[in-house]
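To the wet lab folks,

You asked to see what we're planning to order before we commit. Fair enough. Below is the target structure as tokens, and below that is the sequence we designed to fit it. If anything looks off to you, flag it before the synthesis order goes out.
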């Protein structure tokens, strides 16, 4: 169960390593507009703690602080040379590690073994993730 949370956190960390303003220049950002929109919607939903579908200044500040903390943890985890930043080799190694975890998660839900997730398998994966998140 913690694997899925780790995968999501790491994936989001890679996808939004730059600032939102520089996201278009970020080679790790999702290229497909739908994926970018889904990620943004998920982040907004998580940050909207009072459920009013708007981010107050306090919610924005809390979300920013949480993101910065998660980014620091991600860098610390993958920073092999200890210089406080990820060089190209460290980024590539982190990307490969995340890809391997995503494949592991995909294989877990690919019950028919065809290498793809059909609608029922995607639904099962979503439900498992939501149950784990307490939603």
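Sequence we intend to order:
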């Amino acid at each position: 169960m913690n694997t899925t949370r780790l995968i999501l956190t790491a994936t989001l960390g890679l996808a939004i390593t730059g600032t939102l303003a520089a996201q278009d220049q970020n080679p790790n950002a999702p290229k497909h507009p739908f994926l970018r929109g889904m990620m943004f919607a998920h982040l907004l939903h998580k940050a909207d703690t009072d459920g009013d579908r708007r981010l107050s200044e306090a919610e924005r500040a809390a979300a920013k602080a949480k993101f910065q903390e998660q980014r620091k943890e991600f860098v610390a985890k993958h920073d092999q040379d200890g210089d406080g930043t990820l060089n190209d080799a460290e980024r590539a190694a982190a990307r490969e590690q995340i890809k391997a975890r995503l494949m592991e998660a995909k294989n877990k839900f690919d019950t028919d073994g065809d290498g793809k997730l059909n609608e029922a398998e995607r639904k099962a994966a979503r439900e498992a993730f939501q149950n784990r998140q307490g939603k």
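Structural context that might help your review: Residues 2-133 form one domain. Residues 17-24 have pLDDT under 50 and may be disordered.

Thanks,
Computational group
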